[in-house]
Amino acid sequence: MKYIFVYLVTLLAFLNSVPGKAQEILNLEDAVRIALEKNYDIKLVANDLAIDRNNVNRANAGMLPTLGANITNGNNIQTGRQTRQTGLQEFNNVKSSNTSYGTDLNWTVFDGFRMFARYEQLKELAKLGDAELKQTILTTLGDVISTYFELVNQQQQLRAYDSAIVISRLRVQTAQNRFTIGKAARLEVLNARVDLNTDTTNLVQQQNLYRNTQIRLNEILGRDVNIVFQVPNTLYIDNKLTLGPLSELAVQQNPALKVALVNKRIAELDLKQVRANRYPTIGVTSGYTFNRSQSALGFATQANNRGLNYGLSASVNVFNGFLQRRNEQNAETLIQSAQLQYEKADLNIKSQLAAAYQTYATNLTLVTLEENNQKIAKQNLDITLDKYRLGSIAPIEFRDAQLNYLNARVRFNNAQYLAKLAEISLKEIAGDLNL
């Protein structure tokens, strides 16, 4: 109990030594919420999705008419002469003007069904943007959760290094007492102090790594990188995952597969638009115009007219050097490529899932082994510590036992962290990254 008390006091002293004593406790749920609200990658992709959704309209597909208004006004001043039947007439700085304005309506009523394929393609592009946003969110949450538990692991390592310092200080004090009463040489005290300095160096390096990881997590969250916080010292591992259900979830929910499927659909709609060139294009035009002209010369010095005009236009591609067939072949090839991309993505996801599950199962086994190894190392350290206080073992044997226990704790913490990373990877690939 005495050593536990000293250990807790030392740990609290370390935590209070970090700048900003009133540190926030950042829970995983809060970290995920902040990332969803502030992460820049998510915001950027969300803006792209907003544009894609805004583009889904019939006018953008060319299905609606266009109406325009125009006005023109022209003036000129002329100097010259004219020969008429009545004789020669000269004029100097004679002004004339012409003004016209009106509206024009143009509407393509048939273009070989291209406008309908284009409208469906706009919808698919919005679906593609939605899938890409989900993929970005999934990737970002994976980074947040992984970095969060990396902090938990490093926090546990800090406790391990801190406990090593507590034991090393006890060793220095014991060696000093033994030297004072003449039962130990000066060399034993010096060796104990060297080992204490070594453990202190390891702790300082771990503190630096811990702080840098805090900064990196703040960056992912999209907030001030100088915020100092703590995370709960808990690392729960879901050890009940199985490969079969995860594979089924990946087929249904993995965003990369959804992106590949949407890209194939977009390629199919491209082919429809290319084939539309085989059909005629029919359009209607209409307009209303007003025209007024004034001139000091000629038989009519002023003229006004207005009226409605309308018409029908049609065009068809008769021959373009066999480019139509070539374009269709290229579009069909792109569909085949999109299918291959989907099959490649499907195989890649299955490969990632199988490898991640193997890593997950292996790390679960290592967690059990390292947990047992840590218990054994702790028992060995307790026995060695008692013997060292009694002076029945050499200092080097005590140091070996201390390092064995420290390394066992570090390996156990790392095994837990790696198992958690494998769990996160499995859920991310399956598209079901829950907390």
Computed CA radius of gyration, to the nearest angstrom: 40 Å
Q: Average pLDDT across residues?
A: 89
The SS-based structural class is alpha+beta
Give the overall shape, derived from the CA principal axes. elongated
Q: In CATH, what is the homologous superfamily?
A: Outer membrane efflux proteins (OEP)
Helix content: 55-70%
The biggest beta sheet is recorded as:
4 strands, antiparallel
Number of helices: 9
Q: Count all strands and give the number.
A: 6
What is the name of the CATH topology? Outer membrane efflux proteins (OEP)
Low-confidence stretches: 1-21
Order of helices and strands: HEHHEEHHEHHEEHH
Subcellular location: Cell outer membrane
Pfam family, one: OEP
GO molecular function, one term: porin activity
Signal peptide: 1-22
Written account of the structure:
- There is one protein chain.
- The chain is of the alpha+beta class.
- The chain has one domain: Outer membrane efflux proteins (OEP) (Up-down Bundle).
- 65% of the residues lie in helices and 17% in strands.
- The protein has 9 helices and 6 strands, in the order αβααββααβααββαα.
- The strands form 2 sheets. Strands 2-3-5-6 form a 4-stranded antiparallel sheet, with no helix packed on it. Strands 1-4 form a two-stranded parallel sheet.
- Strand 2 and strand 3 form a beta hairpin.
- The chain is elongated and about 145 Å long.
- It starts with a helix and ends in a 5-residue tail after the last helix.
Short key terms for the protein model shown above:
435 residues; alpha+beta; Outer membrane efflux proteins (OEP); 4-stranded antiparallel β-sheet; two-stranded parallel sheet; 9 helices; disordered N terminus
